[in-house]
């Protein structure tokens, strides 16, 4: 199923580690798209394009699992902590990663190598920009919502405006050039730079912090990824 999907969702590989961008003709980006690096709030407008939902479901194996119950999910190589509930040595604790508790039902997707590489790029950028492990959780959760941690290229005629990359940032809104925002390191650094301009972001619920940066049409969608994002950051930190 996944092999069939990749034939019509080709990768644009500028760099095998940092720039695996997916480009689709006839598939729009997921809802909740980044506008400009600003602290303004955005009204709820419209739902995500159904083609985009189907595409990402196929890419992550969700649709394949539903259609073929005998198919095993993609292994991510990530665990959820030790049997004692304590974090591995040198890793941040769950209390550090989720200081305010999770909000609402949580979602999860299996991760492939491309998604893990992009997650590592986000974690590395969090360290370099000084937002720490909590900032990394916000970044990973945001990308899980925006692109399922896939570095999406331009989606042709069905693209939602000009949103691209891990965070679905828009060149026309000042996030950078298409080449820049489809560079995971640049995109994550831009996201964290904007996050640092949000007053008291460390004390905000994840979905509020993410929404203030992203100005999404779906301001509460980020919360559902907090638990998986924390697991990813705990393992990659």
Automatic annotation (TrEMBL):
Keywords: Signal. Residues 1-41 form the signal peptide. Residues 64-96 are annotated as: Disordered. This is Secreted protein. It comes from Micromonospora noduli. The lineage of its organism: Bacteria, Bacillati, Actinomycetota, Actinomycetes, Micromonosporales.
């Amino acid at each position: 199923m996944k092999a069939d999907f990749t034939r019509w969702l080709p990768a644009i590989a500028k760099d095998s580690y940092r720039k695996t961008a997916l480009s689709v003709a006839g598939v729009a980006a997921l809802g909740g798209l980044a506008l400009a690096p600003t602290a303004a709030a955005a009204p709820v407008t419209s739902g995500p394009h159904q083609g985009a939902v189907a595409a990402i479901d196929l890419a992550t194996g969700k649709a394949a699992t539903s259609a073929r119950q005998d198919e095993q999910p993609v292994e991510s190589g990530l665990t959820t902590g030790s049997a004692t509930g304590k974090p591995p040595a040198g890793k941040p604790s769950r209390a550090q990663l989720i200081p305010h508790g999770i909000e609402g039902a949580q979602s999860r997707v299996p991760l492939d190598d491309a998604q893990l590489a992009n997650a590592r790029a986000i974690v590395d950028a969090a360290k370099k920009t000084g937002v720490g492990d909590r900032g990394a959780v916000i970044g990973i959760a945001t990308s899980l919502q925006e692109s399922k941690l896939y570095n999406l290229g331009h989606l042709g005629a069905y693209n939602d405006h000009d949103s691209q990359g891990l965070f679905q940032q828009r060149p026309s809104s000042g996030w950078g050039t298409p080449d820049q925002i489809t560079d995971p390191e640049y995109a994550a650094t831009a996201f964290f730079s904007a996050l640092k301009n949000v007053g008291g972001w460390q004390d905000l619920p994840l979905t509020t912090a993410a929404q203030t940066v992203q100005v999404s049409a779906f301001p509460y969608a980020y919360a559902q990824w907090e638990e998986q994002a924390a697991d990813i950051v705990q393992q990659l930190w």
